[in-house]
Amino acid sequence: MQRPFVGSKTLMTFGFNRIFFSSLLNPLVPSYQLENQKQKGFSSSSKDSGNSPIGSPTRVQKLIASQSDPLLAKEIFDYAFNQPNFRHTYSTYLILILKLGRSKYFSLVDDLLRRLKSDSLPVTPTLFSYLIKVYGEADFPHQALKTFYTMMQFNCKPLPKHLNRILEILVAHRNYVRPAFDLFKDAHNFGVEPNTKSYNILMRAFCFNGDISIAYSLFNKMFKRDVVPDIESYRILMQALCRKSQVNGAVDLLEDMLNKGFVPDSLTYTTLLNSLCRKKQLREAYKLLCRMKVKGCNPDIVHYNTVILGFCREGRAHDACKVIDDMHTNGCLPNLVSYRTLVSGLCEMGMFDEANKYMEEMLSKGFSPHFAVIHTLVKGFCNVGRIDEACGVLNKSLKHGEAPHTDTWMIIIPVICEVDDGVKISNVMEEVLKIEIEGHTRIVDAGIGLENYLIRKIRAKSRAS
């Protein structure tokens, strides 16, 4: 079956008949027929196309651009290339190189580059920008690096964006970090000076490889070479120091950053707050949280929740309550994570009344407490003999459609039965029946436990009498 080539209108414009184009793709067409068709096609088209029997370079370019099959486009290119008095335009080369590159026909791309060079056509940096992108997407770091040096062969001066894109491709592979560093150091020899982004790319790569000293050296060289670091430059080093548990060094960098007039962004503060909390430097974390607004960066919910979690982890939930108060003062409303973390922390400290207050506040704002939070609060009240409060927590959660876990039922039901012989449990069960029982409700297992408990209790009373 003949492979479709182009539409009939395009064929007429191009000056060939259908048989000739088919014969270009189908070698079974007899050569004498091909020759006859070529002669007819050439004689008719040469009148319209000047010196070239196949039409103008612009027409050929459009035909190549219209092909979805890159190999078919290459056949058209080659055929036109070999015609007398015909010369492809730079745009045609660019279009075909992109088609072949995206389809990963890299050997054909190299061949086209050699032809382009021999044609001595003026080349723009756009070609190499596309090539670098193609090699990067194909995960070919060596070819991307080769492209940088190929630019010199075309007397095309690399731009910082070319250097940076190649550096990004190289450092994505651990064994190409050193070649990237060599290219970075030699870049000025090729007329391109590394900029702030270039330094950041290398600094980040060395930090991830654990070579913080080299990253620091690059950072210091920026000042010597009149390259101005940006917020990201500082953050890269801060994150590296925090990963190494050198949080004090990261704080010093923050001070240096502020002294130089930079305004740290949200991510920079998040990094430091996380590290300070993990190092249990909670006082410093809270001070940093308070300084943020003064230094031009309003704390957001992530910053507040980070410090709340830090306090609760260290058994200082009462200090976390102060952070919640600060949030309201600064116009940042607590979210579900804020409340869940705080209620759990207060329960672990035995501050059940405070925990219950914040759970009520959470429910009033439409937030859903995790069943683990309900369990912790119910268990806490039961352990100190405050059954009424435990039942209150259970009732509130049920009214809001929250289903306590089986373990919660197993804790509270026996205690209620022991206290008042089923009066309170009757009220609780009435609330249970008011809610829609679904697969996650976990009441059935508790009912089985209740049945066994009541049987044991009845038997015990019978033996006693």
TrEMBL record:
To which protein family does this belong? Answer: Belongs to the PPR family. P subfamily.
Keyword vocabulary terms for this entry: Repeat
Organism equals Canavalia gladiata
- Its recorded name reads Pentatricopeptide repeat-containing protein-mitochondrial domain-containing protein
Per the record, the domain of life is Eukaryota
Repeat is among the record's keywords: yes
Database matches in InterPro entries = PPR-containing_protein, PPR_rpt, TPR-like_helical_dom_sf, TPR_mt
Lineage of the species this protein comes from: Eukaryota, Viridiplantae, Streptophyta, Embryophyta, Tracheophyta
| Keyword Ribonucleoprotein annotated | no
Residue ranges of PPR repeats: 195-229, 230-264, 265-299, 300-334, 335-369
